[in-house]
Amino acid sequence: MTGGPLAGIRVLEVGTMLAGPYATMMLADLGAEVTKLEPSGGDISRKVGDSYFASLNRGKRSICLDLASAAGQQQLGELAAESHALLVNLKPSAIRKLGLTYDALRHHNDRIVCVALTGFGLGNGDDPAFDYVVQAATGVAALTGDPAGPPTLPGYSSADNSTGLTAALGLLAQIVSGQGGQIDVSLRDVMLSQLNYHAAAYLDNGVEPQRRPYGAHSYYVPAQLFPTEEGHLALFITHDGFWRSFAKEAGLTGFETMAERAAHRDEILALVSTALATDTADSWESRLRPLGIPAAAVRTLPQALDATPDVVVRAGDHRLVASPIRVSGWTPDYRPPPRLGEHGGSAA
């Protein structure tokens, strides 16, 4: 394989900030030719910083295009005629106004796949929908943090990243079908989908999810963070075999079944907390990992990156995290992000 699994696939992107650009960067990493269609001022994320922009736009092309002009619309049609897909993340009204839907482009290419990535859906209005707003609106923030404290947001853009991956999947699925069409993906729907078992418990049985200390799992016990002699340890005991191995190492007895552990949650957590307080998080990790028990000391991002140098790649002047998709027999060509208008149009 020389050009990657998506070699020959041409994707247009009208993307801003994170969700859309992240989706198309995943495709570019796999060999697709991705062209950003940018206004004269460029994607707004260019103003955030070079590293920020590079982390979402490596390996792409850039064409400056005024989509509000007749000339820009003509060039959009010409590009659409030669492309497999268009992915856009703007407000629904802007998507329609700028002719970035399948209905608007099908006369140029009836097999083009048009993906609209929005906050609440292409037909659900223009309410502002940034990542943190959607996390608050869908119940994610309410489930995060200590029960005695306020709701909390994760320290990264989980809604944007998750929706970007989902949009890329929808785009590829429709290309594989061999038919053009409109794909509609929203941040709201993706985050509600990712609350899967919480949502099912409420919809089927009326069970409302609870925010638990140390991010404890709703079903598995013990499965959460624990304070240790030094640092915190993530321990995730899902089945009885894990428990038997952990209990032997930690000097605990009883509670042999998952049902028993769930029924005696508070007692189990007290016993495990006492046991883990006798050693450091790093030491517990080194003791438990050889036994096949899922456990990890809490690390900072710099510590995690230093421990996994194989995930760091260079794209021009930038050091970035590699694609998480490893394809046997092929290595991505990590090229730097494009200069504004590098491949056509005018940046003036």
UniProtKB/TrEMBL annotation:
Keyword Transferase belongs to the record: yes
Keywords from the UniProt entry: Transferase
GO molecular function: CoA-transferase activity
SUPFAM superfamilies linked: CoA-transferase family III (CaiB/BaiF)
Entry-linked InterPro entries: CoA-transferase_III_domain, CoA-Trfase_fam_III, CoA-Trfase_III_dom3_sf, CoA-Trfase_III_dom_1_sf
Name under which the protein is recorded: CoA transferase
